[in-house]
Write a structure and sequence with these properties.
Length: about 475
C-alpha cells in the first residue's frame, strides 16, 4: 500500500514537471516576439549593404590582401574551425546512438575448479566425452557476435541528434560572427595606421613651420623687437612637437603589430598608401529594414539555433523519465577443445532477449538534468533577446554616428582652412610689429591641433562605415 502511494506521488511530480516544461517554449515565443525592432531611424528600404561581399565593400588592394591572409592564418579562426569539426563529430556520435550496435569477439582460456565444490564434484563423476573424464584444467575457446539495439520509442535519441545538428549549425554561425569581427578589426586598425601616418606628416610639416618661426624670432631678438622669452617659447614648442613624433611612431609600431597578430604573422611592416587618406570617400550606407537583421546577423542566427537546440534538449531530458526498450542478441561458437570448435549444432550457441528498464526510486539525477535543461532553455531565450537588442542598438548608434561625423568633418575642414590662413596673417603682422609672438605661437599651435583632429575625424568616419557594415551583418559571406 505504501509502495502504491509512493508511485502515485512520483507520477504526480512527473506530471507537474512535464507541465512546467511545456510552458517554457510558449514563454520563449512571447518574449522574443516582443523584442523585434520596428524601425531604425525611419529606414524602410529593403536594400541593405550587409549583402555586399567584403571584397566589394573594401576598395584598397592592400587591405583586401591583409583580410585574405587573416582568414587563412588567424589562429582564432582556425580554433573555431576545429570547434566546428568537434560539433560535426558530435552529430555523427548522436546519429549512431539510435542505430543497432554490433561487436565481434574471440577468446581462449583455461579453467580449474575446486574439487570440493558442487561443480568440481559433478565434474569428477562425469565424462566430458565418452570414455574420458573431465580434466582438472579445462580449456575454453569462443568466437561470437553480440548486438544490442535501444528502440527509440520516445524519440530521445533522435532528438539528441537533432539538438547536435542545431549546435553544429550554431558553431558555424559563431565562426561567421567571428569573421565579421575580424574583418572589421583589421579594417579599423588599417585606417588607424593610415591616420597615424598622416598625423606624423602633419607634425613634420609643423616642426618645419615652428623652426622657421624660431629663426624669425631670433632675428627679431637681435633687433630688440622681442625678448629672450619669445625665443625660449618657440624653442620649447619645437621640442614638444618633435617629442610627439616618437609617441606617434610608437603607436604606428603597436598598430602594425596588432594587424600582424590578427593576420597570424610575426612583426613586419604593413603595406599601405596613406597619401590621400583625407580624400577617401565615405559611401552612403543602405541599412535595409529591421527584420533583415534576423537573416543577416550571424550572432542572432547563432542564438536562434541555440534556442531551438535548448528546446529539444528539454524533450531529451523529459524522455529520461520513461522506460528504455533494449533488444540484445548473440550468436557464436564455444568448445573446450579446438577440434570441436566449429561443430554444428553441438558447439553453436545463441541468445535473444529484451529488456524494459524504467527509473523508479531516487531519480534525483534525472530530475536535476531536466531542471537544468529547462533553465538552459530560459537562458537561451534571454540570450536571443539580448542578441536582437544589441544588434538593433548597434545599427542605430553607428548610423547616427555616420551622420554626425559628416557634419563634424565639414566644420573641422572649415576650421583648418581658417587657421591655415591665419598662420600667414599672424606671421605677416608679427613681422610688421602689429602682433606679438604669442599670437603667432598660439595660431600655429591651434592650426596643428585642428589638422590632427581633422585626420582623427576622418578615421572615425571610416571606422563608423566599417562598424555599421559589421552591425548590419556584413562581412562573413
Amino acid at each position: 500500500m505504501k509502495m502504491n502511494n509512493l508511485i502515485k506521488l512520483i507520477g504526480l511530480c512527473l506530471i507537474v514537471c512535464l507541465f512546467d516544461s511545456c510552458q517554457i517554449p510558449q514563454i520563449a515565443t512571447k518574449k522574443v516576439s516582443q523584442l523585434t525592432p520596428d524601425s531604425y531611424a525611419g529606414s524602410k528600404d529593403t536594400i541593405t549593404v550587409s549583402k555586399t561581399a567584403w571584397r566589394a565593400f573594401f576598395k584598397d588592394p592592400a587591405l583586401i590582401a591583409l583580410i585574405d591572409s587573416a582568414l587563412e592564418k588567424n589562429q582564432e579562426v582556425n580554433i573555431l574551425m576545429q570547434e566546428i569539426q568537434i560539433a560535426k563529430n558530435e552529430v555523427l556520435a548522436k546519429q549512431g546512438a539510435y542505430l543497432p550496435f554490433a561487436s565481434v569477439g574471440a577468446g581462449a582460456g583455461v579453467d580449474k575448479v575446486g574439487r570440493y565444490t558442487s561443480q568440481g564434484a559433478s565434474d569428477a563423476n562425469n565424462e566430458i566425452v565418452p570414455g574420458k573424464a573431465v580434466p582438472d584444467f579445462l580449456q575454453n575457446y569462443e568466437l561470437g557476435i553480440n548486438a544490442s539495439w535501444e528502440i527509440d520509442v520516445w524519440k530521445k535519441l533522435r532528438n539528441a541528434k537533432k539538438s547536435a545538428v542545431l549546435k553544429y549549425l550554431s558553431t558555424v554561425e559563431g565562426k561567421n560572427f567571428m569573421v565579421t569581427h575580424l574583418i572589421a578589426e583589421i579594417a579599423n586598425s588599417y585606417y588607424e595606421l593610415m591616420a597615424l601616418d598622416n598625423q606624423l606628416t602633419i607634425l613634420n610639416q609643423n616642426i618645419e613651420l615652428y623652426q622657421n618661426s624660431l629663426d624669425i624670432v631670433r632675428i627679431e631678438k637681435q633687433y630688440a623687437r622681442v625678448t629672450e622669452l619669445a625665443v625660449r617659447r618657440f624653442e620649447a614648442e619645437v621640442f614638444k612637437t618633435k617629442s610627439r613624433q616618437f609617441s606617434i611612431k610608437q603607436q604606428i609600431v603597436e598598430t602594425e603589430n596588432r594587424i600582424n597578430f590578427l593576420v597570424g604573422r610575426f612583426p613586419q611592416a604593413v603595406l599601405r598608401n596613406s597619401t590621400h587618406f583625407t580624400d577617401l570617400a565615405i559611401d552612403s550606407i543602405q541599412a535595409g529594414i529591421p527584420s533583415q537583421l534576423l537573416f543577416n546577423r550571424t550572432d542572432i542566427k547563432q542564438a536562434e539555433l541555440a534556442l531551438k537546440a535548448a528546446e529539444i534538449d528539454v524533450n531529451v531530458a523529459k524522455a529520461e523519465f520513461y522506460p528504455s526498450f533494449v533488444i540484445n542478441a548473440g550468436l557464436g561458437y564455444r568448445a573446450f577443445n579446438a577440434k570441436y570448435f566449429l561443430q554444428t549444432p553441438e558447439s553453436l550457441l545463441f541468445n535473444l532477449g529484451g529488456n524494459l528498464v524504467a527509473p523508479l526510486i531516487n531519480r534525483n539525477a534525472i530530475k536535476a538534468n531536466f531542471y537544468s535543461a529547462n533553465n538552459k532553455q530560459v537562458q537561451a531565450v534571454y540570450e536571443y533577446e539580448r542578441s536582437i537588442l544589441r544588434a538593433h542598438l548597434e545599427v542605430v548608434n553607428q548610423l547616427s554616428q555616420i551622420a554626425n561625423l559628416k557634419k563634424s568633418y565639414d566644420l573641422k575642414s572649415q576650421q583648418v582652412d581658417a587657421l591655415t590662413q591665419s598662420i600667414e596673417i599672424s606671421s605677416t603682422l608679427f613681422k610688421s610689429a602689429r602682433a606679438d609672438y604669442m599670437e603667432v605661437l598660439l595660431t600655429q599651435r591651434d592650426a596643428l591641433e585642428s589638422k590632427i583632429e581633422l585626420v582623427e575625424t576622418k578615421k572615425q568616419q571610416l571606422n563608423a562605415q566599417v562598424n555599421v557594415y559589421q552591425a548590419l551583418g556584413g562581412g562573413w559571406r
